[in-house]
Each structure stands twice: as C-alpha cells, then as structure tokens.
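Protocol step 4 of 5: obtain the predicted structure for the target chain.
Materials: sequence only (see below). No template structures provided, no constraints applied. The aim of this step is simply to have a reference model before the mutagenesis design in step 5. Sequence pasted as it appears in the construct record:
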Amino acid sequence: MIRHQRAIGAASMEVASHGLARLSQASPLRILFPTPEPGAPLEAALVNVAGGLAGGDSLAVTLALRAGARAQITTPAAEKIYRSLGDTSGIATRIAVAADAVLEFLPQEAILFDGARLNRGMEARVAPGGTLLAAESVVLGRIARGEVWRHGSLRDSWRLYQGERLIWADALHLEATTRHAEFGLDGADSLGMILLLAENAAAHRELARELTAGAASLVRPGLLLLRFLGSAGGVRGAMAEAIPALRAAALGLPPRLPRLWTC
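Step 4 output (structure tokens):
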C-alpha cells in the first residue's frame, strides 16, 4: 500500500502581561490574533489551514502564560477528523499557566468522521495562584449530514498539574463499535467537558449544578469539573450556556462566548 505524505503541524506561543512575547508556527497550524474588545484579554485563534486531519496527520500546540498574563485561545470552527486509511491522527496540547495568570482555553468541538481514528492528549501545568478555564468536546459522526460514526477509535487523555503535583488525570478509550454499550455512551453522539481550576472554584459549584444540562462536581479544592453527554446540538448548547456563566462568575469577565463561536 502506498504511504502518503502526512501533515505535521506545530504552534507555540508565550504571552506576557504586556501581550504576545513569543510565537512560532509550522504549517498547517497557524495562530491568528483577532482584535479584542477594549479592555479584553489577548485573543488568539488556532487555525488548521488544511481544514482537518487525515489519518497519520498530527498537530502539536504549546501555550505558556507568564505571571500576570491574560489570554483567550479558541478555534474559528470545529476541527474535522477525516476517515483514516489505517493510521491514527494525533493532537497534543501542552499548557503552562504561571501565578496570577488567567488562561481561557476554549476550542470548538472536534468532529470525527466515520472511520476516523484520533489520539488526543492534553497536559496542563498551572502554578499556584494561576487560573485555567478550559473546554473540550467531541462529536461522533457528521450528525448534520446524517452520518454515523460506525468505524474508528478515540483515545483522549488529560493530565492536570498544580505546581509539580499531579492533581487530576482522565483517560478515555472508545471504539466506534462499542460506543452504544449501556455502560458506555448509551447511544449519545457527543461528549464535552468544562474545567475550572481557580482558587475560588468551590464558590461556583452550585452555579454549575443549576445549569440546564450536564453534571458538575468539585473534584478537589480549587478544581470544578462539568461533564456533558447527549446529542451534538444539546452538548454544544449546554456548554455555550455554562462557559459565559463561569467566565463571569469566576473570572470577572463579560458573560459571553468567544466571538469566533458565534460569527
């Protein structure tokens, strides 16, 4: 079998209290900077100019915030994971947040086409006094086109450190052929997560539980976790309600989604 050339993209960004301090990028990954609203944090958009990932393609993202920095990272559209001819696509993200820095990491969903194989990993290191509001979601199949994710696999992992201490770890291995299991996703076609690591996280647990959908838990002091499972539209809608609410309550910022989510 002919082995096709694969895309290997990378982007690295460091933000200081005065703004962007360092930037490097390799195609097909780019970081663009929409003009923020007056007084808003720095905004950055991760863009895959290839339009999606085919089997064997990989992206590596490194984001670092220095002390006192503020930034919001998002994507202009859903990340599309195309049908694989055998190889697995990969997305690796590394985040570092210094003391007194605030990072909003709010990409839009990843859509797994039928036959897609994805290995996605996140490692976040947050210094004591730093704040992280992060969201991730996956849609299993091109639901709007009536496509079902019948073949493929998803491996998704999180490692969250506070200082040098691992405080939370999560891993998911899902095969398309077993996702309808009663003790699996039970037919749901989307899953999502919102994570808030902040000194005041416990104060927002009841707010999170009052939201219309999803489940919320204070995993440990300072770490609030929300999970969502259901239809693609339902999960996106629930997350679109929760993100602005937590943004306002925990970060003291206007209760709105990233502009690229709605334009």
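Step 4 remarks: Helices lie at 205-210, 232-251, 259-262. The chain has a mean pLDDT of 94.
Proceed to step 5.
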